Amino acid sequence: MMNKNESRIRRSRQTRIKIAELGVPRVAIMRTNMHISAQLFSPCGTKVLAAASTMEKDLRTTLTNGGNSNAAKEIGKLIAERALKAGVTEVAFDRSGFRYHGRVKALAEAAREAGLKF
After folding, report:
1. Assigned CATH for 4-113
2. Does the predicted model carry a pTM greater than 0.90?
């Protein structure tokens, strides 16, 4: 019997295999109870082109809680902004096995509004 985290990791593995076949940069997210972060990986998956997290010093002063939808929206905007600055417009969204609702959905929609295509 798999626990909750092992199931999530198994789901994420399948997603990463599919994204690797596409050969596009991927935005991977990590969600904890307290924080949410996003990283933009190069198509080969070896380089981090951009990153945004609620653990960053300047964001921690403005956000009251790093583990809610408002924080996720901020990270979505920030990762899109930094990706565009790095010259990336089209990405694959890697939700790391998390369900697409709540904070994950808020981050994705904010990134789309800020100009990322996925």
Report:
1. 3.30.420.100
2. yes
